[in-house]
Amino acid sequence: MIAAYSAGGTLVWIVWVVAGCACIGSAVAVISFSNPFYSALALIGNLGSLAVLYLLLSAEFVAAAQVLVYAGAVMVMFLFVIAYVGPRLEAPWEGAPAWQTIAAVLAAGAIFLEIIVVIALKAGGRLAHSDHVNRTFGTPAWIGRLFLTDHLLAFEITSIVLLIAAVGGVVLGSHARRRDPQEVRA
User: Fold this and answer.
1) Maximal C-alpha separation, the chain
2) What whole-number distance in Å separates Cα of residue 117 and Cα of residue 95?
3) What is the DSSP track for the chain?
4) Which pLDDT tens digit goes with each residue over 70-125?
C-alpha cells in the first residue's frame, strides 16, 4: 500500500516538474520568437501546461476554462488578428534602450522581488497555516456566484477589453492593407 502511494506521489511530482518546465520553456519561447504566429502558438503551449498544473491542484473547472476560454477562444482571436495584420517590417528593439526595455527590466525585478518575499515568508513559517476549504470551493456554481456578484465589474471590464482588442486588430489590419502612395506610382 505504501509503495503504491509512493509511486503515485512520484508520478505526480514527475508530471508537475514536466508541466512546470513546459510552462517556463513555452513562456521563454513566447518572447523569443520573432514571428508573432509562432509566439502565439507557444502561448497556447503555455496555457496548456498551466491547465495541467491546475489539474494537479484539483481545480478541474479552472483547467477546463483555461483550455476552452484562453487556449481556445482568445488564442483563436489572437491568431486571427496576427494573420489579418500581417508581418511588421520595422524592428522595435533596434537602437538605444527604449521604454519597452526599461519596462521589461522593471517587471523582471518586480517578479524577482515577489519570489524572494514568498521564499522568505515560507522559510519563516508564515505561509504554513491552512484555512478550512468547504466542499463548494472551486465548483462552477461557486465560481459563477463570485463572477456575477463580487467580481462583476472586473468580469465586464475583461469582456470590454477583449472587444477593444478585436476592434483594434481590425483597425490595424485595415491600415496595414492600405497601399503606400509611393508604392502605387512605381
Assistant:
1) 80
2) 35
3) -HHHHHHHHHHHHHHHHHHHHHHHHHHHHHHH-SSHHHHHHHHHHHHHHHHHHHHHTT-HHHHHHIIIIIIIIIHHHHHHHHHHH----S-TT-SS--HHHHHHHHHHHHHHHHHHHHHHHHHTTTT-------TTTT-HHHHHHHHHTTTHHHHHHHHHHHHHHHHHHHHHHHHHHSPPHHHHH-
4) 888 878 777 777 777 766 555 555 665 677 778 888 888 998 998 888 888 878 77
Question: What's the CA gap between 148 and 105, in Å, rounded?
Answer: 37
- Non-local (6+) Cβ contacts of 6 within 8 A are none
Residue 98 is predicted with a pLDDT of: 72
Is the pTM for the entire model greater than 0.85? no
Cell of 68: 476552452
